[in-house]
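README, section 4: Worked example with a bound small molecule

Sections 1 through 3 covered apo chains. Here we extend the same pipeline to holo records, where the ligand is supplied as SMILES alongside the sequence. The molecule in this example is flavin-adenine dinucleotide. Nothing else about the input changes; the structure line simply encodes the ligand pose together with the chain.
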Amino acid sequence: MDATTAGMATTAAAMVWFRKGLRLHDNPALEAARRGAARVYPVFVLDPRYLRPDPDAPSPGSARAGVARVRFLLESLEDLDSSLRRRGSRLLLLRARDDVSDAVCAALKDWNISKLCFESDTEPYALARDKRVTDFAEASRIEVFSPVSHTLFDPAEIIEKNGGRPPLTYQSFVNIAGEPPEPVMEEYSVIPPIGDTREYELFPVPKLEELGYGDISQEDVPPFRGGETEALKRMRESLQDKEWVDKFEKRKGDPSAFLKPATTVLSPYLKFGCLSSRYFYHCIQDVYRSSKMHTKPPVSLTGQLLWRDFFYTVSFGTPNFDHMKGNKICKQIPWKESEELFVAWRDGRTGYPWIDAIMIQLRKWGWMHHLARHSVACFLTRGDLFIHWEKGRDVFERLLVDSDWAINNGNWLWLSCSSFFYHFSNLRQPPCTTCKL
Ligand SMILES: Cc1cc2nc3c(=O)[nH]c(=O)nc-3n(C[C@H](O)[C@H](O)[C@H](O)COP(=O)(O)OP(=O)(O)OC[C@H]3O[C@@H](n4cnc5c(N)ncnc54)[C@H](O)[C@@H]3O)c2cc1C
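The generated complex, written as structure tokens:
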């Protein structure tokens, strides 16, 4: 027993339910499960909603995720499992038949869990899933601890401080937010062992080839590997170049720099929580402390993390954030219907080399520079084809490795001039398109 656990009541068995947050560092849910528990069950549930193969999808994968993102997830789970095993534990992978919450509730009951810890999540799908689990836990007298640790700030708190509405400009968000909490950086040499898992078949993290996506041998493997180990290595490499950190100015990078991208390429790691945004923020601040001058939000590196939190907060406080209809902050625009133009855009066949190259990079790597995303999103919507942003959003949502509900929808709203940003457009009339497709 260490100083932190001394004097605490012992929990017989705790479950830490991983969803995002696939890491050991800055993980308050894991820390709470570990404290005072004789046994800790680290669980991840494979969700068919994201993983079930869809042979009709335009590229290999499921209806909601391309193979690049599924590969990244499996690599991240493997890395998490190895880290747990080095500390005397392991990841318990459950396969949900349909609803993830059913699998979690069954395990809570079967393993006689008395405390459940999981990172809170603001996505509508996650909120509904988590409510089913929390309701079951409360009815079964299981203690629930669900801290905010995916973002720098608690979106609900910011909304409350802003009088019950999300701040709709970056600056007002920054003014309200202040400084984020410090990360919880416990070093674990040991994690309490798992208990009896009777009647449960335990299996290792599956290989991508085992998930039934057909022949994926021709698919490109993106040049970044999933997992916390890789995330921390990549973050440290980025922050080593202090001058680069000090001078980081988002709009100035070269979006076609592939061998050494102009930005950190940490978004997939932040998406899956292999890297804590609070820890990343804290490490950037360390670099700033030793520098004479550095750039500031919104263009600086910390400014990028604040953009992330801005979109999380607005998305949490805006009903129907992911739709035009019923979304109070979204302009109602008479977008055009053209399946032919849309498919040409999606498949990188517009005849505009820059646009097509970016869409091919999306399909192969699942990551593109921010300005490249700008180009194709603008081209599809207000810039040229005048096609609904929700259609482009769906393509990004499926293919991006860093696909993130709040950030993706927020940026599509922005780029299509549907919300946040209207200065350069007059979208009351459809623009005259020069496209010759
Ligand atoms: C149409 C469109 C869709 C997008 N969809 C996503 C998405 O699904 N997931 C996603 O993570 N980013 C998305 N972005 C934002 C941005 O392009 C990526 O976060 C960024 O390119 C990731 O690269 P990086 O990690 O090297 O970023 P860096 O510049 O190194 O920034 C560090 C981190 O800050 C955050 N960040 C940076 N830019 C933004 C931004 N504009 N909004 C919110 N957070 C930001 C990301 O978490 C990023 O990893 C989208 C942008 C556009 C224009």
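What to look for in the output: Strands lie at 11-18, 37-46, 92-95, 115-117, 143-145. Residues 1-8, 426-437 have pLDDT under 50 and may be disordered.

Section 5 describes how to batch many such records.
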